[in-house]
Write a structure and sequence with these properties.
Residues 1-35 are annotated as: Disordered. This protein has 258 residues and is of the alpha+beta class. The protein contains seven helices and nine strands; from the N terminus they run ααααβαββββββααββ. Helices cover 40% and strands 25% of the residues.
Length: 258
């Protein structure tokens, strides 16, 4: 960094091994106090997070599960972070940190028209999206979604198709006030000759419980990138082979394709 003329003219020679005189006599005291306060805040995060976990588990409900997840995140940050408790709590419960996932896959021997028709009937989606319990088509643009949630619970919301290009694109968004704010699109594009169809999925959502929920899910191997990637691979297997190979090596065939 280049010094200004004033800074160059006022430089002082500092003797070896001798720290410069501080122009702020209380600096060391303030730094020490700040370190002590950070330590207090970290312990506060640990204790508050632990209490939220206990309270959440005792409720045995979806709300309790989310409380426990947020509490676990708060305790985790208290143990590992230098942030103050106010920042940590804001991160734990905030919904402003949306998550964006973008994945693509190439499906052989299937045209965009075939894949579009299958996906466009949203009731087919639970066949390869294992976290989906059900999707009910209400009318031409609206559908009702039910997904798995912690502690054996479920989360539900309605979504509308907001843009559609036949055989090419389906875009959707959750309705106002949905329990999970989300939007996204799936695009079907002819691949180079002999390679079938490229399928691209982009999803953006705000997880219940904020960013900490997503971070904890990632720690346990259930982050959105992995999940969407797995589901696209399942879609590929289902479309190419008519079945999905399970972890035990046994196939899982189509269940009532419409």
């Amino acid at each position: 960094m280049e010094l200004t003329p004033d800074e160059r003219g006022n430089q002082r020679n500092v003797l070896p091994n001798q720290p410069p005189e501080s122009s702020h006599p209380n600096l060391d005291f303030e730094q020490h106090s700040s370190e002590q306060m950070s330590e207090v805040e970290r312990w506060g995060s640990l204790l508050t997070g632990g209490a939220l976990v206990l309270m959440g588990l005792q409720q045995r409900s979806l709300r309790g599960a989310l409380m426990a997840i947020a509490g676990g995140g708060l305790a985790y940050h208290g143990a590992t972070s230098q942030k103050g408790i106010k920042e940590t709590v804001t991160e734990a419960v905030g919904l402003d940190n949306s998550i964006r996932v973008e994945k693509s896959v190439t499906i052989f021997n299937r045209s965009p028209e075939e894949l579009y028709r299958f996906w466009r009937n949203f009731e087919n989606l639970p066949m390869f999206m294992k976290h989906l319990q059900s999707v009910q088509v209400i009318d031409q643009t609206r559908s009702h979604w039910v997904v798995d949630a912690p502690v054996g619970n479920s989360i539900e919301w309605d979504a509308d198709i907001i843009n559609e290009q036949e055989n090419q694109l389906i875009a959707w968004a959750s309705v106002e006030g949905a329990s999970v704010e989300n939007s996204g699109f799936v695009r079907f594009k002819t691949a180079p000759p002999g390679r079938g169809t490229e399928v691209k999925v982009v999803i953006e959502y705000n997880p219940p419980g904020g960013q900490v929920t997503a971070n904890l899910a990632k720690l346990f191997g259930k982050d959105a990138n992995q999940q969407i990637g797995d589901e696209l691979r399942h879609f590929k297997m289902l479309m190419e082979a008519g079945e999905i190979a399970t972890t035990e090596g046994q196939p899982s065939g189509r269940r009532g394709e419409n």
